[in-house]
User: What shape does this take?
Amino acid sequence: MRVAVFSTKQYDHHFLVEANQQVGYELEFFELRLTRATVALARGFDGICVFVNDVVDSVVLEELAGHGLRVVALRCAGFNNVDLEAAEQFGIKVVRVPAYSPFAVAEHTIALLLGLNRRLHRAYSRVRDGNFALQGLMGFDLHGRTVGVVGTGRIGQVVIEILRGFGCHVLAFDVFKNSDVERAGATYVSLDELFARSDVITLHCPLTPDTRYLINQNSIACMKRGVVLINTSRGAIVDTDDVIAGLKSGQIGGLAIDVYEEEADLFFEDLSSEVIHDDVFARLLTFPNVLITGHQAFFTQDALEEIARTTIANLTDIKHGVECVNEVTGELIRPRA
Ligand code: NAD
Assistant: This one.
């Protein structure tokens, strides 16, 4: 089986080569992102292996189908960058890694919350500069605070367990309730109630047409003044312009994000010697109460090993024409009956 691996970094190469040792597929690694401009590189391959910011839209899929490609293997859980209906139409299977390590993302979410709340990003530079003043570093106890968790799937559930360990009250919202979540001590409420009562809101739902800009001017207005927002899910769940307005007015007391709607032009690259052209992102960087990481929540050794192992296993299922439990079908985005 010949597979073109796009958006390859040194760490992807390392873990995929290791996982591929048993089966010996022909993997060709490209540093380039998959886009309409680079899709020609996939000519002659049976499959492509892509990540979160590769473009797998209908135009790209049509060209891939024209080359006889059979499978798109996502090395991530989210599949919002793939046009699933087009894939179905062109007979291309889409497989993903639904659960490589919910702990990796959940723990990073908590790291962001703690770091932002106690202003660790500022404290770190101050201390290195010999500035031991505390002004501007005051946080609040998480114990006894109310945290709203939107999306109680694999990652949301781990976040809830950690938060309960801190002594937080946890409110949850999901389109499907899970009794394990209630057993863990969280209380399902409506989204409106979650927005109105939470001191901290953390997002763990996928990006779908329903969740795009879930956090917007109107929802922000319904939140507690000074609310802390955490987003490790997908950038476009948040309307960044509206969040900036909320930060300026003080309605939002802090923002920590690992994802950003326009991250494809920024994240995963070293741009430290270049001018950032994205003015919205540049504005975010000016706030003392904003903490940003560049889509690294998944980035643990355990997660990368599991991503590579599952990706190779998914390709093997497709190669042998057996049912792949990690296949993404249109039903995952269509409402369940
Ligand atoms: P999951 O599928 O286990 O859980 C998602 C949950 O969201 C489900 O319970 C689902 O019912 C719920 N949901 C769907 N639509 C909703 C809506 N409109 N409102 C509220 N809840 C809704 O997924 P997961 O493994 O927990 O991952 C969650 C998200 O985290 C992924 O979709 C992905 O976008 C993101 N993620 C980010 C990183 C990172 O490195 N930053 C890594 C992995 C995943």
Observations:
- The mean pLDDT is 96.
